[in-house]
Amino acid sequence: MKKKFDLVYQFKITLKDSKPPIWRRIQVPETYTLWDLHVAILDAMDWLDYHLHRFEVIDPSTGMKMKIGIPEEEFGEYGETPPGWKEKMSDYFTMEDRKADYIYDFGDKWIHKIKLEKIITREDGVTYPICVKGKRASPPEDCGGIWGYEDLIKITADPNHEDHEEMLGWICEDFDPEYFDVKDVCFDDPKKRLRMAFE
Q1: Which domains does the chain show, CATH number per domain?
Q2: Which of 14, 69, 73, 80 fits a 20 to 30 Å CA distance from 136?
Q3: Looking at 65-79, 91-105, 109-123, which range is the least confident one?
Q4: What is the per-residue pLDDT across 61-81, written as a single tens digit (0 to 9) for each?
Q5: Cβ–Cβ contacts within 10 Å for residue 70, how many?
Q6: Taking all residues of the chain, what is their mean pLDDT, rounded to a whole number?
Q7: What does 145-171 look like in DSSP terms, one character per residue?
């Protein structure tokens, strides 16, 4: 049974160093954990969720930066990390503490800048989470981070480049880096995703 909620958090998620910017604006229930927010971010960005992740957030009780994601006992070579599914999103995002980083894939290191834009009253008839706006396609997985993605776009746009054919193998034939439509975003059930992650 889903938890009842009255408030909705609106975030802008921007892929760091993307030029022009790749971003999404999402609205999620106030009851979300950081794991739930992780799933919503990945779904909005169209990432496949087969790499590790973590949030880097300010602990409001100490003012120190914390890393929250997959705990060390499960997958860990990256130090002691509290599990995101045990941490309430609303404990870390307030109108006073609006910003955090979200890192997906520690190899390619996709860094997403998260900004809480506002907290609003939920609308009747709207199913949350929802993506309300965004710009540009997300890069393909495993293409070497933002710098690898920039090279990929340049090379695939130049049929005379010696690596043109090889690089086309990384992307769909009809991949358009400028394309994004909110109607294409489909959000998964975070609890289902958590069960799948640990089966």
Answers
A1: 7-136+180-198 (3.10.290.30), 140-176 (no CATH)
A2: 69
A3: 65-79
A4: 888 999 999 886 555 455 578
A5: 21
A6: 90
A7: HHHHHHHHHHHHT-TTSTTHHHHHTTS
